[in-house]
Amino acid sequence: MAEQFVVIGGDAAGMSAASKAKRDTPDTDVIVFERGEWVAYGACGLPYYIKGDIEALDDLVSVTPTEFINERDIDLRLEHEVTTIDPEARTVSVVGPDGEQFEQAYDSLLIATGAHAVRPDMPGTDLDGVFTLHSMTAGRDIREYVTRARSERTPGFHDGTNTAAQTYLDTQPPETVALVGGGYIGIELTEAFVANELTVELFQRGSHLLSDFGEAVASEVESHLREHDVGVHLDTEVTGLVGDEGTVTAVRTANAEIDVDMVVIGAGVRPNVDLAQNANIERGPTGAIATDEYGRTSVSPFSSQSCRTAPPSPSGCSTLSFAPATKPSSETDMSATTRGPSVLRSPGVAPITSLPS
Ligand SMILES: Cc1cc2nc3c(=O)[nH]c(=O)nc-3n(C[C@H](O)[C@H](O)[C@H](O)COP(=O)(O)OP(=O)(O)OC[C@H]3O[C@@H](n4cnc5c(N)ncnc54)[C@H](O)[C@@H]3O)c2cc1C
């Protein structure tokens, strides 16, 4: 029987590894379980989709599911969620789109479950009109909220049976948006919202924007934003969101309450480690999966990119290897190669982003 290489998660890291494994060892059965409906998407383009520069979400997809299946011979299963890993039995439990459950055996396993956006622990984050941005569906929801244009995919909208969607369209589009967090997502979304003629209030807890960059870059960006009438609130922590009849109406800080119609929180990410944690796979100092420099975890499945703690970088720092979209490819090339006869070693990951506190 052919070797079974199972991958959990079908975005940048998972699909790079699956493709690399198939290229290197075509006889291997490569099976990818992705719980969502999208694979190999460029989340980096979502702010430009929201802005309107990119017309359709499909334009952010680099390789389609059909191409992975037909041209790369990868057994890709969309809307399949892995619910447990059993490292002793070398199986994963999976729930399919119709709720069917089954076990899948593996010879090697890659955990490429990525990360999710943080919702800070403060009142009001569950109000309507409050968003985070880490997925294609979140990007679609934000664009629809801003433009009040329900998409083709909203069930029942076009035949008039979805009255919630109709009511939603009848209300006024937002005029003022608060961005909580002055990192790159906050800045890219500011551009998108200004282009859509929204008034933007940008809140940053620290003393300068883009804390991963130096002050010179940050002050240049700040002046540019102010020239476009963006309200830049530095050293200002948002302590809660205020609502009326379930919809957000204001942002609260220590000194003020500022009226807004919409909020997007860009306060960092946390790794998706529940599966690993429940399988007693060790975690590192950031809370992400601990791996050695070959991407191996404490119980031998591999882990990749956003959900793993990288080994120390040349700078000596150990960090959650979040961000550069180029990184999932190189890191997972390593995991996909190392599971075969040759091994690749990661030189480490330099810290380019801070974890939320
Ligand atoms: C708005 C935005 C802008 C960005 N801009 C840039 C940029 O300009 N440059 C850059 O380099 N990077 C950028 N990034 C970061 C980049 O998108 C990420 O580094 C990259 O998406 C990480 O890929 P990943 O495959 O590790 O994880 P993810 O993209 O998080 O994918 C993980 C996948 O695993 C699936 N999954 C999770 N759990 C399960 C389970 N139990 N069963 C099955 N499937 C599961 C999820 O559905 C998801 O599809 C940006 C990100 C965002 C959100």
Account of the protein in words:
- The chain is an alpha/beta fold.
- The protein folds into 2 domains: 4-116 and 269-338, FAD/NAD(P)-binding domain; 119-265, FAD/NAD(P)-binding domain.
- It is 25% helix and 24% strand.
- It contains 9 helices and 20 strands.
- The chain has helices spanning 12-24, 46-51, 65-70, 136-147, 163-170, 184-195, 215-227, 274-278, 326-338; strands spanning 4-8, 29-34, 75-78, 81-86, 91-95, 101-105, 108-111, 115-117, 130-132, 176-180, 199-203, 231-233, 238-244, 247-253, 257-259, 262-265, 269-271, 289-290, 302-303, 308-309.
- A 5-stranded parallel β-sheet has the order 3-2-1-7-19. Strands 9-16-10-11-12 form a 5-stranded parallel β-sheet.
- The N and C termini lie far apart (47 Å).
- Residues 312-328 and 347-357 have low confidence and may be disordered.
- The site of flavin-adenine dinucleotide (FAD) has 33 residues, from helix 1, strand 2, helix 2, strand 4 and helix 9.
Helix percent band: 10-25%
Structural class: alpha/beta
Order of helices and strands: EHEHHEEEEEEEHHEHEHEEEEEEHEEEH
Total number of β-strand segments? 20
The strands making up the biggest β-sheet line up spatially as 3-2-1-7-19
Distance between the termini: 47 Å
**What's the CATH topology label of the largest domain?**
FAD/NAD(P)-binding domain
List the helices and strands and how they pair.
Blueprint (H helix, E strand, L loop, with lengths): L3 E5 L3 H13 L4 E6 L11 H6 L13 H6 L4 E4 L2 E6 L4 E5 L5 E5 L2 E4 L3 E3 L12 E3 L3 H12 L15 H8 L5 E5 L3 H12 L3 E5 L11 H13 L3 E3 L4 E7 L2 E7 L3 E3 L2 E4 L3 E3 L2 H5 L10 E2 L11 E2 L4 E2 L16 H13 L19
Parallel strand pairs: 1-2, 1-7, 2-3, 7-19, 9-16, 10-11, 10-16, 11-12, 18-20
Antiparallel strand pairs: 4-5, 5-6, 8-17, 13-14, 14-15
Helix pairs in contact: 1-9
This protein binds flavin-adenine dinucleotide.
Flavin-adenine dinucleotide binds next to helix 1, strand 2, helix 2, strand 4 and helix 9.
